[in-house]
C-alpha cells in the first residue's frame, strides 16, 4: 500500500516519492551538518543530549547539464555533502536517477538539520550514472565509477535566507580545472512540517490519448506542488502502467509536508513513458487536496487539459482523472511508536562455514586477536547490538550459528550459539560475544551456507508474538556471513513468508566474497522478492551492508541498519492500522 521510495533506476518505471516508507533520502552522520534520523535522535536524547535545529528538506533540479552519453542523454543523479571544518566531505544523501535528461527535477528530497548558530557549507555533485548500473540501488553506487557532470557549493544559510528560499548555482569541474559553466543547479529549501496529517489517494484515468505507434500509451502521473514563487516542485510520481489507456494506479500517500495545505494547488501531469526520457504529456490538471476530496465524494471525473500554442488557451480533452479513494489519516512516526513503548527485539545468527578460514589462523575472519582488536564478526555484533539493545527492555537475545559441525558432530544450519540445547537466549551484547567466542572452540567450521533455517526460526518467534496479540514488539535479525548462498531460492521463500511478520533482517557481509546475491535479497532495486510459488513479498524486510565498505569509511553497520529500519517498521504497522501504545484501543 502506498508508494515506497525506491532508490533504483530500472528504466525509471518505478514509483518515487509519497509518504509511505522514506519520503526523504537522508544519511545520519551524527554531526551538526547532516541529516536527521528519528532512531539516532531518540538514542541521543535519552542520554540528555538535545540538538537545537530546524529540520529542512532540500529539493534539487538542474538545467543544461553536460551530455556524456553517446546514443542518448545523461542519466543524472545528485549527491549532497556537508563540508566539515577540516575540509572533508560527509555525504548527507542522494537523489534518485532520472533517465535521459539534461534538465532533471529530482523527486527525492534531501533532509538536513539547519542549525542557526553554526556555518554549514554544502557541496553538491552531479553524476551521469552508467547504463550498466541501472539495476543497482543508488545508495550502493560507487561514485568513482560514474561520469562526473559538475559540482557547486554554498552555505545552507544562503538558501534559507533567500526570499523564495531557492538558490541557483553554477556547476563547474574543479577536478579538471574546468571553470566554464556546466549548467546550473537549483536548490529549494523548506522547513519540515511537524504535522502527522496525511492523505491516501487512489487515482485512475479513462480514455487517455494513444500516442504510441505499435501499442497503447504507458501512462504515469507526476504530482507537483506550487510554491510561493509560482514554481512547481515534484513531490511524487506513480508507477508506470504499461499499454493501458484506462489505468488504475496503486494508492499513494501524501503527507502534509508534501502537499502543504488542503487548499494548496497541485499540478497533476499525466505522461506517456518513453525509455529515452522524452515522456509525452497526455494532459494536466490543477487541483488541491480539497478538490480531490470533492471529486471522490461526488464520484465524478475531471477533464485533462493540454496547453495550447496560443497563450492563455487550453485544449480540454475527453480523457478524465478519477479519485477512487481519498482518506485522511494520521501518520505516526517511528519515534511515536518507540517512545510509546514499542520494542525492537534483537536476534543474531553467525556464519560458521569453512570459507571463513581456520579460527586459529590470523588470516581467518573468525580469528580472535589476543590484543583485543575486534574481527569483522565481533565488530558487526557490537555495533549493531549496542544500538538495538537500547530498544529492548529485557536485553535477552536469541543467538544462533549456522553452517557448523556442532556438539553432536553433525552439521547444523541453526544451532544455539551458547551450546545449551534448550536455551537460545543470551544476556546482552556481552553474552552474544562470549557465546560466539566459546562456540569457536566447540564448533567445527563446515558448510554449505544456508539462510533458510535461521530466517524460519526468527519468523517463528515473530509469529508467536503476533499470535499472542502482542502488537508492541518488532524483531530484528542480524545475519553476519562471509559467503555465497547455497539456498538462494529457499531463502527467498522464507523472506516472502516472513514479509507479513513484524520482522526485519540485516545482513552484514564480511570478507571479500561476491555479494551480488545479497543485493538481490535487499530489494532496493524496487523489485520485491518472489517465492518459488509466485507469491510476491508484501514489503521489503532486508537491508544488506558489506563490511568492506564499513572499513572503507563509507558507512557503518549501525547507519546501514538505521537507514532503512524505521521505514521497514512503518511499512509493517501502518497498513495494519497499528497505533502507538498510548493510542491503542483496548
From TrEMBL:
Give the protein's recorded name.
Answer: C2 domain-containing protein
Annotated Gene Ontology cellular components are: plasma membrane
Q: Which residues form the C2 domain?
A: 36-169, 179-306
Start and end residues of each stretch annotated as Disordered: 12-32
Against PANTHER family, the record matches this protein to: COPINE, PROTEIN BONZAI 3
> GO terms for biological process?
cellular response to calcium ion; defense response
Record's subcellular location: Cell membrane
Source species taxonomy: Eukaryota, Viridiplantae, Streptophyta, Embryophyta, Tracheophyta
Q: Could you state a single Gene Ontology molecular function term?
A: metal ion binding
Q: Where does this protein have coiled-coil stretches? A: none
Amino acid at each position: 500500500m502506498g508508494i515506497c521510495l525506491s532508490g533504483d533506476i530500472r528504466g525509471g518505471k518505478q514509483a518515487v516519492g509519497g509518504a509511505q516508507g522514506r519520503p526523504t533520502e537522508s544519511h545520519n552522520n551524527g554531526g551538526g551538518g547532516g541529516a536527521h534520523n528519528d532512531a539516532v535522535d531518540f538514542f541521543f536524547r535519552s542520554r540528555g543530549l538535545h540538538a537545537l535545529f530546524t529540520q529542512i528538506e532540500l529539493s534539487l533540479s538542474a538545467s543544461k547539464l553536460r551530455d556524456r552519453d553517446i546514443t542518448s542523454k545523461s542519466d543524472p543523479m545528485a549527491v549532497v555533502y556537508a563540508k566539515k571544518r577540516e575540509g572533508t566531505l560527509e555525504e548527507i544523501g542522494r537523489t534518485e536517477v532520472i533517465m535521459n535528461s539534461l534538465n532533471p527535477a529530482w523527486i527525492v528530497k534531501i533532509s538536513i538539520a539547519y542549525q542557526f548558530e553554526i556555518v554549514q557549507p554544502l557541496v553538491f555533485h552531479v553524476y551521469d550514472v552508467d547504463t550498466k548500473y541501472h539495476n543497482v540501488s543508488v545508495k550502493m553506487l560507487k561514485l568513482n565509477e560514474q561520469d562526473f557532470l559538475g559540482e557547486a557549493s554554498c552555505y545552507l544559510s544562503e538558501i534559507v535566507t533567500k526570499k523564495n528560499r531557492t538558490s541557483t548555482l553554477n556547476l563547474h569541474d574543479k577536478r579538471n580545472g574546468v571553470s566554464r559553466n556546466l549548467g546550473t543547479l537549483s536548490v529549494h529549501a523548506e522547513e519540515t512540517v511537524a504535522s502527522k496529517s496525511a492523505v491516501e489517494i487512489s487515482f485512475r484515468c479513462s480514455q487517455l490519448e494513444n500516442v504510441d505507434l505499435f501499442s497503447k500509451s504507458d501512462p504515469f502521473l507526476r504530482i507537483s506542488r506550487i510554491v510561493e514563487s509560482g514554481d512547481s516542485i515534484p513531490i511524487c510520481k506513480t508507477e508506470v502502467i504499461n499499454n493501458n489507456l484506462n489505468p488504475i494506479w496503486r494508492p499513494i500517500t501524501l503527507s502534509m509536508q508534501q502537499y502543504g495545505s488542503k487548499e494548496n494547488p497541485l499540478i497533476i501531469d499525466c505522461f506517456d513513458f518513453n525509455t529515452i526520457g522524452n515522456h509525452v504529456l497526455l494532459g494536466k490538471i490543477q487541483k488541491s487536496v480539497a478538490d480531490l476530496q470533492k471529486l471522490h465524494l461526488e464520484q465524478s471525473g475531471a477533464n485533462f487539459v493540454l496547453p495550447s500554442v496560443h497563450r492563455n488557451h487550453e485544449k480540454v480533452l475527453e480523457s478524465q482523472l478519477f479519485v477512487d479513494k481519498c482518506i485522511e489519516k494520521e501518520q505516526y512516526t517511528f519515534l511515536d511508536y518507540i517512545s510509546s513503548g514499542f520494542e525492537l527485539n534483537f536476534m543474531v545468527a553467525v556464519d560458521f562455514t569453512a570459507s571463513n578460514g581456520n579460527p586459529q589462523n590470523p588470516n581467518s575472519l573468525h580469528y580472535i586477536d589476543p590484543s583485543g582488536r575486534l574481527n569483522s564478526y565481533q565488530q558487526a555484533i557490537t555495533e549493531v547490538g549496542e544500538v538495538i539493545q537500547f530498544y529492548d527492555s529485557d536485553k535477552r537475545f536469541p543467538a544462533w550459528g549456522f553452517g557448523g559441525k556442532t556438539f553432536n558432530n553433525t552439521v547444523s544450519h541453526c544451532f544455539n550459539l551458547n551450546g545449551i540445547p534448550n536455551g537460545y537466549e543470551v544476556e546482552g551484547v556481552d553474552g552474544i560475544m562470549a557465546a560466539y567466542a566459546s562456540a569457536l572452540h566447540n564448533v567445527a567450521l563446515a558448510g554449505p551456507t544456508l539462510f533458510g533455517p535461521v530466517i524460519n526460526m526468527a519468523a517463528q518467534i515473530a509469529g508467536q508474538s503476533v499470535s499472542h496479540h502482542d502488537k508492541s514488539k518488532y524483531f530484528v535479525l542480524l545475519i553476519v556471513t562471509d559467503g555465497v548462498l547455497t539456498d538462494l531460492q529457499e531463502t527467498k521463500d522464507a523472506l516472502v513468508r516472513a514479509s507479513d511478520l513484524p520482522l526485519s533482517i540485516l545482513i552484514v557481509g564480511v570478507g571479500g566474497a561476491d555479494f551480488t546475491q545479497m543485493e538481490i535479497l535487499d530489494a532496493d532495486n524496487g523489485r520485491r522478492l518472489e517465492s518459488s510459488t509466485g507469491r510476491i513479498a508484501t514489503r521489503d524486510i532486508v537491508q544488506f551492508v558489506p563490511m568492506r565498505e564499513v572499513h572503507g569509511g563509507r558507512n557503518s553497520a549501525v547507519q546501514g541498519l538505521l537507514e532503512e529500519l524505521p521505514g521497514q517498521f512503518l511499512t509493517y504497522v501502518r497498513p495494519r492500522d497499528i497505533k502507538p501504545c498510548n493510542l491503542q484501543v483496548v
